[in-house]
Specification:
- By secondary structure, this protein is of the alpha/beta class.
- It has a single domain, classed as Alpha-Beta Barrel (TIM Barrel), CATH 3.20.20.30.
- About 40% of the residues lie in helices and about 15% in strands.
- The strands form two sheets. The chain has an eight-stranded parallel barrel, surrounded by seven helices.
- The longest helix is centred in the middle third of the chain and has 19 residues.
- InterPro entries: F420-G6PD/mer (IPR050564), F420_G6P_DH-rel (IPR019945), Luciferase-like_dom (IPR011251), Luciferase-like_sf (IPR036661), Non-F420_Flavin_OxRdtase (IPR023907).
- This is LLM class F420-dependent oxidoreductase.
- Pfam families: Bac_luciferase (PF00296).
């Protein structure tokens, strides 16, 4: 069954406000919650970045929905042993409700720790090694390693009955194809249809047809077009940067400087902008037709209550039971 989820953006809202928004989204009929895991916001006007792992325990207690979180266990901000323990504990408390989405990360969240920022190929190798470690720990094995990540007789003592799914975060054909060998599912973002179809196909080529595809949909809804455009420019123009560039910038100010010249027409491929709920429903339908199983909606403006109410009334009912 196709699902529509709500994205809880730690970059834009204080943790307590996000808790309230999760409750509203659940009451409105959203099927799932997705969470970002950031040390810093993308830009100064976003203004927040609470610690997602502290928040998750409270949010999963406040809601009965399934959650997913995007994170990067490559040994800079997080050691894979720490992530495995955090995830296993949450999964033991909230069975069958947590999915982790693992990616090679951005300098914005890693470089401030002062131990360097590896090139992309090394980050991918670190990620794949960490996935193997996390899976072994989820199986209850004792792990000793001498690779990128050093472990000495490491083991988890609190484990869920069922290990959480591990998805891959992928924004390129190469990443999607490579991840098909180790991931339980794929998480990507909305982009022009031909590119999104190619990424889904690249993953399906190696993973088969059964593994789920989740698409995070960046959109801007408001009651008129000018407001929707303003919200996009104020809050989410950094999303227009190509992924290889975004991965290397390491402060909100750098993102603001790199995007200060962008106009609204430069953002139309990366953010779906419209005051029409029916137009947004059509866009979501197109994403499902490309092969997505779950669309996780991120309204990029601060008008979250307006968005949740409008979509509860005019968008979500169109997809119930499909």
């Amino acid at each position: 069954m196709r699902q529509i989820g709500y994205h809880a953006s730690h970059e834009q809202f204080a943790p307590s406000e996000l808790l309230d928004l999760v409750r509203l989204a659940e009451a409105a009929g959203f099927d799932a919650i997705m969470s970002s895991d950031h040390l810093a916001p993308w830009g100064a006007k976003q203004g927040q970045s609470g610690f997602a792992w502290s928040w998750l325990g409270a949010a999963m207690q406040a809601s009965r929905l399934p959650f997913s979180i995007v994170t990067t266990p490559i040994g800079i901000r997080y050691h894979p042993l720490l992530i495995a323990q955090a995830v296993a504990t949450l999964a033991a408390m909230y069975p069958d409700r947590l999915t982790i989405i693992l990616g090679s990360g951005e300098a914005l969240n890693e470089r401030p720790f002062g131990i360097g920022w590896p090139a992309k190929d090394e980050r991918v190798a670190r990620l794949e090694e960490s996935v193997a470690i996390i899976r072994a720990l989820f199986r209850g094995e004792e792990v000793t390693t001498r690779g990128f990540h050093r472990l000495e007789n490491a083991r988890l003592y609190t484990l869920p009955a069922q290990a959480p799914a591990i998805y891959a975060a992928a924004l390129s054909l190469g990443t999607a194809h490579r991840a098909s060998g180790w991931a339980d599912g794929l998480a990507t973002i909305n982009m022009p249809s031909s590119r999104l179809r190619a990424i889904i196909d690249a993953f399906r080529e190696g993973a088969g047809e059964e593994k789920p595809i989740h698409v995070q949909v960046h959109l801007s809804y408001a009651d008129d077009l000018e407001k929707a455009q303003h919200n996009t420019l104020e809050q989410w123009k950094t999303n227009a940067l190509p992924a290889p560039i975004a991965a290397e910038l390491y402060s909100p100010q750098m993102f603001d400087d790199a995007t200060q010249h962008l106009r609204i027409e430069d953002l139309e491929e990366s953010v779906l902008i419209s005051p029409s709920p029916s137009q947004h429903a059509d866009w979501v339908q197109q994403i499902f037709e490309l092969g997505a199983d779950c669309a996780l909606l991120h309204n990029v403006g601060r008008n979250q209550q307006e968005f949740i109410k409008a979509f509860a009334e005019k968008v979500l009912p169109q997809f119930k039971g499909i």
